[in-house]
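Supplementary Note 2. Why include the ligand at all?

Several targets in our set were suspected to adopt different conformations when bound, so apo predictions alone were not considered sufficient. For every target with a known small-molecule partner we therefore ran a joint prediction. The input for iron/sulfur cluster is given below.
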Amino acid sequence: MSSIHEECGVVGIYAPVKDNIAPYLYYGLLSLQHRGQEACGIAVTDTGAKHLDVSCIKDMGLVAEVFSKEQLSTLRGNMGIGHVRYSTTGESIRENTQPLVLNYCKGKLSLAHNGNIVNTDELREELIRTGAIFHTTMDSELIAFHIAKNRVHSESVEEAVYKTAKKLKGAYGLVIMSPKKLIAVRDPFGIRPLCLGKKDLTYVVASESCALSAMGAEFIRDIEPGEILTITEDGIRSDYSLRQEKKAHCIFEYIYFARIDSAIDGVKVYDARMKAGELLYKRHPVDADIVTGVPESGIAAAKGFAKASGIPFDLAFHKNSYIGRTFIKPSQDERALGVQMKLSILEEVVRGKRVVLVDDSIVRGTTMENLVRMLKSAGAKEVHIRISSPPFLHPCYYGVDVPTNKELIATKNSADTINRIVGGASLEYLDVEDLSEMADHLPLCTACFTGEYPAGEK
Ligand code: SF4
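The joint prediction is reproduced in token form.
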């Protein structure tokens, strides 16, 4: 139940024969809603039309709020891209919603971006130097303008994308639509996920594999770090010129962001979370009567802890999934009430028991304090806290909204002190050394725990 915000999610589809792809994009975005709830959008085009144009609908709000059936029916075409957004750069306003659509020398270029670029100053200065007066702070817009600029002196849009991507530092999963081509690009470190699926002759790309199934497609493979994948009526082709040796997949996708039924770079998210729970028990065992998890992201790790320890797993919390969003910002005093609105406790499960409570992270500590209080009020004898990630100590520059150092409780307090603050009987974190085993020994970005930033800092 992390208060770290999600990033963004992208989808793209190229259907040589269908002209009603908008509902597929809609379903893909619905399944990626966990990655961003502030805004969303869809842009489509018909590659066979005489007068090529792009229809785009985007707005602030959830996918189900922004698109009506009538609106979707106005989006006609066989190629399209979509985006769900949580603003990690740029203000949270309608103008910053994606996909971006801009005019360039070949017609219209559309782009949706998941991730965050760290060298935006350089990119902006270059545009200004070459004559474009450009003051945006939005990294996605800078990418789109660089592609448009490079297209003038390139043989193809892929070449313009390559020239642009070579200059980008940071994390990106991009879907780009030129008048006739759909292009997907993943940053050379593979920090953000991106995968490819297929149904009949239709190709689909998405931030997570759960979106491929939602769009009726079968997972083919992850798009490789540094791959530029182009989809046209002739099929797919890949350019690997950006490829490099060093990879660094974001560990937090496995810990918290990605949906539990997704698989990223060959590792199932559910398996990784189970493994984290098992490793937590091996390093930090405890005697207890039940293991429980904080819904949703703490549940799989709690099951792993239960499996490794032999202590039975039980559900102590019920999550109210129908609260929706509230636009009223809670005061500090109202936060505790907010947690109780979202989660209610099953007293009979915890009364008189020594409870192991597993969650994915502790950010400010307020949520954990409330959860421990709820368990104790329901009659739990002891609450042993186990966190399936190491302590958060550093900001993320790659598209994840980790609060500032000042707000992160672990930057100033040891595990013992935090345990005292939140009222637990004991508190232990997953060790940094265990992250690699958790993600099946993939090369990882773990910068928010270690401060070692693979793709540079802002
Ligand atoms: Fe993921 Fe943390 Fe790296 Fe950001 S710093 S990409 S959240 S592992």
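The CA atoms of residues 283 and 406 lie 29 Å apart. The longest strand covers residues 107-117. Comparable summaries for the other entries are listed in the accompanying table.
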